Amino acid sequence: MLPTLWYQDTLYPSEWMESEIRRILAGLHALDCGPGDTVAAMLRNSPQYVALTLACRRAGLYLASVNWHFKALEAEHILTDSSARALFVDADLLEQIAGGIPGHVAVVTVAGNAAAAPAHAQDWTAFGAGLPPMPARAGLVHSAITYTSGTTGKPKGVRRIPPAPGDFASAERFAQVMDIVYGRGDVAFLAAPIYHSAAMSYLGHFSNLGATLVLEPRFDAARTLALIEKHRITHAYLVPTMYQRLLALPPEARARHDISSLRQVASTGSPCPAPLKQAMIDWFGPIITEAYGSSEAGYTTFIDSADWQRHPGSAGRAMPDADVRILDEGGGALPAGEIGLIHVRQRALSDFTYVNRPEARAAIERDGLVTLGDMGYLDEEGFLYICDRKADMIISGGVNIYPAEIESVLHTMPGVADCAVFGIPDAEFGEALAAAVQPLPGAQVDAAAVQSFLRERIANYKVPRIVDIHQQLPREDTGKIFKRKLRDPYWQGQARAI
Description:
This protein is of the alpha/beta class. The chain folds into three domains: 4-140, 3-Layer(aba) Sandwich (Rossmann fold); 169-388, 3-Layer(aba) Sandwich (Rossmann fold); 394-491, GMP Synthetase, Chain A, domain 3 (2-Layer Sandwich). Helix content is 29%, strand content 26%. It contains 15 helices and 28 strands. β22 and β23 form a beta hairpin. Belongs to the ATP-dependent AMP-binding enzyme family. InterPro entries: AMP-bd_C, AMP-bd_C_sf, AMP-binding_CS, AMP-dep_synth/lig_dom, ANL_N_sf.
């Protein structure tokens, strides 16, 4: 089934979507793209992005999404690591990544041509036009390759291993999981960026249902309320940062629109502070849900408003087909109430691999379950509580940011001897970035220069908001930087540690 789209107050019926999908597939066939190959997208939310996503699923192609904030080095890694055959990119984004596009990658520009486009680039409106359609291929239930960073500083591509031919039972079980996490409805709202794995799965779920999808290029709190009323939206995907912006609206603006059509608001991707979640329940009603998951493991726990109010702070209980265990360092199971490493498996979801990184995939598995380094415990009723995340990962506005990636770039700055990047509390985004920098003896380094250096090389959202210059960074006896001593002063007096 195909969705009907509303985008910037324009209707894109399912017939439009079918026509675009066929044209995209004809163009990809002409590029000799076949099942199992990869194409890449660096696009803002748009009907074209939706069409490309659904075309790749139908053709058995993998789609590697590139965050549209990325710069040349970041984009080059994904395009090279994923072996992308083609790149679909918004024309105005080309300049910031032009130096990172490998010469063999076909380029298709969306929303017009650009001066930075390679000579062989094609325009979206002409791509595939007049060509014979691609032959029927076996589709992929999970066609997205999600790149998630790690402690090495280089993003790793998470790619699903296709289920065995004819294994329809797995797809049905996975659909049931998505029904719980996102709900089943006629009209769904999405303003989160499609390049994010959760937004991509939300898009896929409601596309499979043939629903009407109200897609926005970006989130605007007041407009969101107006759209809910106008389209009688039944389901929405919102993250805590969006909750903050909704609640910040004046009372008269919040009361202006009828939101009674909403039946479920799904939130995933970052922890939601208890007062913020309670405020949303008080306003929207007991329709706020939350799920714990990851690109690697999928969704493994779920909690609705009623259970959350009985178990505040919990990430929920294990979902159907999911296994959630708390293990000690030796792999032994821990009893209820004891904190350990969270290991999970969602058996309704096919297994995964890290692109070109089998050793990294093997390193996180134990007894058929995987861990991403999150610490937590289960209570007597099986509700999961997350106490800490990976040692260094930061979630800002629902986006995972890994300090090692930023530090690896900062180490190349002239005059920098060493550095540490860490998370500090932020009222709107949950966490913000701070950096501590130690200059080389005699070097003159200031905060503005550090931020400018990083802004030229990495996405702006990865540039630390605060940069402190230290003549000596605190270190452990081993010489490793003592990040906790840098981080803890910012978190004093806070009700949470992440």
